[in-house]
Amino acid sequence: MKYFVNNYVQAFTQAVRRSSHEEVIGSFVKLLKKTGDIKHSKKILEAVHKKLVNEKGGKWVNVEVARESALKKEKIKHNFSEKDHIDFKVNPELVAGVRITINGESELNNSLQNKLNKLFK
What we know:
Structural class: alpha+beta
Strand content: 15-25%
Number of strands: 4
Strand order of the largest sheet: 2-1-3-4
Distance between the termini: 39 Å
Oligomer: single chain
Largest sheet: 4 strands, mixed
Number of helices: 5
């Protein structure tokens, strides 16, 4: 990458505050193409989204479950604010249970895999 992700995030969020969104997005895509960082656009846009969620007082929550379940999703969503972004992923390696990470820092690992790892250490 030519520039760090945080540089793109800061430039984009500042530009959005000053100009129309359509104009900024078009210019931002052109910049990414020009610098050759368009291949990293998913990573950059996720970082921008995280910053915007955090600025609004929300949390970025990653939830990994062993199997898909709509009931689990609703129970988990109920414990968080509307401002929070909750990303659900199925991870069969967990075998059973759930792993929740908040803002990439705090983690609740209530998976069978984690319990087995602790048991056999």
